[in-house]
Amino acid sequence: MFKKLILNKNRWWFACLLGLMVAACNSKPSQENTNKPTQSADTNTHAVINDTVTEPTPAAENIDSTAHWTASILAGLPISESSALASFQTAAWNKYRTQADSNWAKYNRRQTTKMTKWADIELANVRSQTHKVFYPFSGPDFLNVNTFFPEVDTIVMIGLEPLGALPALAAMSPDSANKLYPRVEKSLYSVLSFSFFQTISMAKDLKTQELNGTLPLITLFMARRNQTVVQTRYVHISPEGELQEASDSANGGVRGTEIIYQNPNTQKKQVLYYYSVNLVDFKLKQNKTFLAYLDRLGTVTTYLKSASYLLHKGYFSTVANVILNHSQFVLQDDSGMPLRHFPASEWDGMFYGTYDKPIDMFARHYQPDLYKAYHPAADSTGQTPHVRKLPFGIGYDWRVNASNLMLFTKK
């Protein structure tokens, strides 16, 4: 139903959509699927270069590559005929693949190429000093964080969406498989069209028999970002804040998903952790185990995008303090931390893009000080050195020349 949504012509529908999304932000996380993730490794490669998808290099036959093959099937990418899942490359799947290639080609032309070129220049110094990225309110958005930080050692993502499990394709009937592809297409529509997920839609899209939780989408994004899914497992956080392997996602306490992935060009193994945790103060303060884990984060670069302005509210102060205490860098749009949290005596700020006001749905979060930062008096050369162009759209006001990003560096 969102295919007819065009913000500059029908902002009422977009406001309704965001209203549902914000309402979902304070809801209780759903119960996760209890199926175990598949642990696997493979050397398959495929590349997305602008709008061209290349054929994959077959994985070695003696390697259990179920997780990566599954991610590739979900992503609409071809897999080796020697794979146990090769039979899923049916006429229905090929139709899905054709549409997926078209959707991703458009996305890559509009977003990936521009974002990559921008980040290679503007984030070069940040990348060289970043070993861990902290991404609260992320949902399954590996896509954007990997574009900005493609070689980071560790990513820690937190959302309300459940962990879920990779679909057991080998045990799936043809009818179930045919239902899977439209569900994947639907779940990706908003992020490929507008650069963000619709939380209320994910609550439905990621709780079906065929598509369950964030794990399928995270690994799908890895496949489309030319990453090999090496291994997935559930993890459990001990009362001391230490990670332990969990037998499945239904164990008590704080659970998460660990995904080891690898860039076939560099052969570097990286790790992503996703936790389904409610970060509102009254929930987080009761969650002593996860607070202990956050205390052990170390120095991070925090990334915030389409965060519903939750950190502007006093009842998200606990996670706000975690960000301020542990971050050397914060990369965000205006829906993240309010500017008042970054005093010039403690942080250097660089501003990209445009800020006039939030979209109507979030009008109450207008920041006069941020407007002033984006509209400074020119220096003697007629330049505004702390405000630079942003060549792509991102966030709620996702159109080019209407979006913003900010980079704060701790002094």
What does this structure look like?
- The longest helix is centred in the first third of the chain and has 32 residues, at 91-122.
- The protein has twelve helices and 13 strands.
- The model is unreliable at 1-36 and 38-64 (pLDDT under 50).
- The chain is 33% helix and 18% strand.
- The chain has one domain.
- Helix 1 packs across helix 7, helix 2 (66-75) crosses helix 8 (215-224) and helix 3 runs parallel beside helix 6.
- The strands form two sheets. It has an eleven-stranded mixed beta sheet. Strands 1-2 form a two-stranded antiparallel sheet.
- The chain is of the alpha/beta class and 411 residues long.
- The radius of gyration is 21 Å and the shape is globular.
- It has helices at residues 11-25, 66-75, 91-122, 124-129, 142-148, 174-194, 199-205, 215-224, 281-284, 288-295, 317-326, 368-374, and strands at 48-49, 52-53, 132-136, 154-159, 228-237, 243-245, 254-262, 269-276, 300-304, 327-332, 347-353, 387-388, 404-410.
In short:
This protein has one domain. The protein has twelve helices and 13 strands. It has helices at residues 11-25, 66-75, 91-122, 124-129, 142-148, 174-194, 199-205, 215-224, 281-284, 288-295, 317-326, 368-374, and strands at 48-49, 52-53, 132-136, 154-159, 228-237, 243-245, 254-262, 269-276, 300-304, 327-332, 347-353, 387-388, 404-410.
